[in-house]
Amino acid sequence: MANGGRGSGAAADARVVAPVAEDTLGWRDKRTLPRHLRDMLALDDFETVARRRLPRPIYGYVSGGVETNASLRANRAAFDDIAFVPKMLVDTSMRSAATTLFGHTYAAPFGLAPMGGSSLAAYQGDIVLARVAAQANLPMITSGASLTALEKVKQAGRTSWFQAYLSHETPVISALLERVARAGFETLVLTLDVQVPSNRENNVRSGYNAPLRPTPRLAWDCLTRPRWLCGMFLRTLITQGMPHFENMGPRTPLISATGVRTSGRRDKLAWKHVELMRRLWRGRLVLKGVLDPEDARLARESGVDGVIVSNHGGRQLDGAVAPLRALPGVKAQAGDMTVMMDSGVRRGTDVLKALALGAQFVFIGRPFLYAAVVAGDEGVAHAIRLLREEIDRDMALLGLPSLTDMGPQRLTAAKGGEFLPRRD
Ligand SMILES: Cc1cc2nc3c(=O)[nH]c(=O)nc-3n(C[C@H](O)[C@H](O)[C@H](O)COP(=O)(O)O)c2cc1C
Question: Please, which residues bridge with residue 191 across strands?
Fold first, then answer.
């Protein structure tokens, strides 16, 4: 099936090499950084601080995987299995990481993944992430499970990407799609790997629930994190009232003794519903959670514009293959669909490995939310800056004038074994 003239495809997604002056890259003199950000040297540094600031159940909700955390670990291990073969004496002085995706040229080949509950961890988390992403000229995907109405996130951040969790019911599908289109979103991301709620034992153990149950234990967890209690929770209550889950199912308050969040059954969702969405949605349609090359083929044949190779950051099916390993197989079946990936990307070198294996773009989740917890807008801007600096430095060290020069020929197995399409 064709893409209905929406203009996706290899041409639209070719990475452009537009030389960018150094001062527009967002570099910042380290001496002018606020004190609390000076020790943030890499994305992982934000987690250490955020862990101390967040109540235990909320940190557990953000950081956790599922069951044994096998996929969470595999996501990182996949990157460690790969080594680079850099090229010397290449003039990279005009290098650029600018990347064109769906007709828009972004500052770098990465964006901010959708994260429900962002506004539970960081003050106005959804708005902060959307706003800073827009300022940095990077895409941010608004979560369908956010505590902020999608219209508000759109207004604050100019993000054009919205992520939906949908059941098979046609009236639910068409109502949401109409609302999302009315708000002005252009790219709809349908998340597929949530057929049923996953088995997040860590949430049960730490006392996390959606909505949160007002228990003495929760009160204690919050009281022992005064910074979060005052700077996030009380501040939100005073300025906006009790947050609600806004975009999915009935409007449910964040804290409720009896409330139940219902979002409809999703285990009936099938390819015919993707085809229905394709007919109803005039913008770009992206499927998130594709790992199987055969699913990539079906997506292409259903008129989908792009796929995000993802295992939800190891939060759904424990043992699901690491997206980095699944990339080459999906890419082989993707045709002119745009291939993106997420799960476990933390470093500039990770971004480049993913690009070498067939991704045109990557998304990153947890680290940007931790950055918002640590220092709001400044924190997220600093995290973006760090990753952009890493990519720029790595391009020079690898001998890459342009990201289009990054391919499997620049990779080898780190431990003498194989790294390519092996499936975990
Ligand atoms: C706190 C949190 C909330 C998330 N909420 C959503 C969501 O609402 N929709 C969705 O498609 N994915 C959601 N995800 C998954 C992310 O979009 C993304 O796939 C994952 O975080 C990428 O892995 P990383 O955190 O290792 O970068 C969430 C992840 C986290 C950590």
Answer: 288
Task: List the Cα angle 406/105/286 in 5-degree steps.
Answer: 85
Q: Is the distance from the beta carbon of residue 312 to the nearest atom of ligand 1 less than 6 Å? A: yes
Active-site residue among 244, 273, 312, 382?
Answer: 312
Identify the residue whose C-alpha is closest to ligand 1 atom 20.
313
Q: State the distance from the centre of ligand 1 to the C-alpha of 38, rounded, in angstroms.
A: 27
Task: From the CA of 364, give the closest atom in ligand 1.
Answer: 27
Burial pattern 322-352, b for ≥16 Cβ within 10 A else e, equals bbbbbbbbbbebbeebbbbbbbbbbbbbbbb
Domains and CATH numbers, the chain: 33-202+262-413 (3.20.20.70)
**Tens digit of pLDDT per residue, the chain (424 long)?**
333 334 344 434 444 434 433 444 555 677 788 988 999 999 999 999 999 999 999 999 999 999 999 999 999 999 999 999 999 999 999 999 999 999 999 999 999 999 999 999 999 999 999 999 999 999 999 999 999 999 999 999 988 999 999 999 999 999 999 999 999 999 999 999 999 999 999 999 999 988 899 999 999 999 999 999 999 999 999 999 998 988 887 788 888 887 777 667 899 999 999 999 999 999 999 999 999 999 999 999 999 999 999 999 999 999 999 999 999 999 999 999 999 999 999 999 999 999 999 999 999 999 999 999 999 999 999 999 999 999 999 999 999 999 999 999 999 999 866 665 444 4
Residue 375, ligand 1, Cβ within 6 A: no
Q: Which two tokens stand for residue 184?
A: 């002005």
Q: Distance (Å, rounded) from C-alpha 164 to C-alpha 129? A: 18
Is the whole-model pTM more than 0.85? Answer: yes
| Gap from CA of 399 to ligand 1 centroid (Å) | 33
